[in-house]
Amino acid sequence: MRQGDTEYLAALDETMEILRRWAREGRTDGWYKSLSEELKAQGHNVHYRGPIISQLLGDACRRDSKGTDPMLSAIVILKATGRPAGQFFELANGAPFHRTHAEWTWEQERARVFARYRES
After folding, report:
1. Model's pTM, two decimal places?
2. Reduced to 3 states, what is the DSSP secondary structure of residue 77?
3. Given CA atoms 27, 29, 35, 41 in this order, what sign does their dihedral have?
4. Gap between the Cα atoms of 101 and 49, Å rounded
5. Which residues contact 73 (CB under 8 A, 6 or more apart)?
6. Over its length of 120 residues, how does the chain's per-residue pLDDT go in tens digits?
7. Beta-carbon neighbour count of residue 52 at 10 Å?
8. Are 92 and 71 in contact (CB under 8 A)?
9. Residue 84: which residues within 8 A CB-CB, separation 6 or more?
10. Residue 117: in which H helix or E strand, if any?
11. Phi then psi for 108, rounded to 5 degrees?
12. Which phi and psi angles does 86 have, rounded to 5°?
């Protein structure tokens, strides 16, 4: 699987469906490994520690958000820390998200994701 190929795009669609469902459910236990397992159950072999999962989460955010909208992948966390991986924070600080305000936190971002999807 490579970013942009047919298999990747199918996995991206499924990733977005999973994350939106988790957001509607208000899940705070959305681990990278859980996402990997759900993707595998749908026929997408994406390891939770590999680069593809980071690419999928970044692309899901870019597809779902126009910059000021909540970042969908804020709800995916590492089981060991209870926080997103470093790649999430790199994505948050860059374009088009620019989450650089000193008072911004991923917890607030996660709450915004939950609120957005509970309303829809």
Report:
1. 0.92
2. strand
3. negative
4. 29
5. 19, 57, 58, 60, 61, 84, 88, 91
6. 888 899 999 999 999 999 999 999 999 899 999 999 999 999 999 999 989 999 999 999 999 998 889 999 999 999 999 999 999 999 999 999 999 999 999 999 999 999 999 875
7. 20
8. yes
9. 73, 74, 76, 77, 78, 106
10. helix 106-119
11. -65, -40
12. -55, -30
Length, in residues, of the chain: 120
Nearest alpha carbon to residue 37 among 14, 8, 66, 13: 14
In the block, which residue shows the tokens 């996660």? 110
Tokens at 76, concatenated:
């995916």
Query: Could you tell me the sign of the dihedral formed by the alpha carbons of 115, 51, 58, 43, in that order?
Result: negative
Q: Rounded to whole angstroms, how far apart are CA atoms 120 and 110?
A: 16
As a whole number of angstroms, the distance between CA 39 and CA 45 comes to 7
Question: What residue type is 112 in one-letter code?
Answer: R
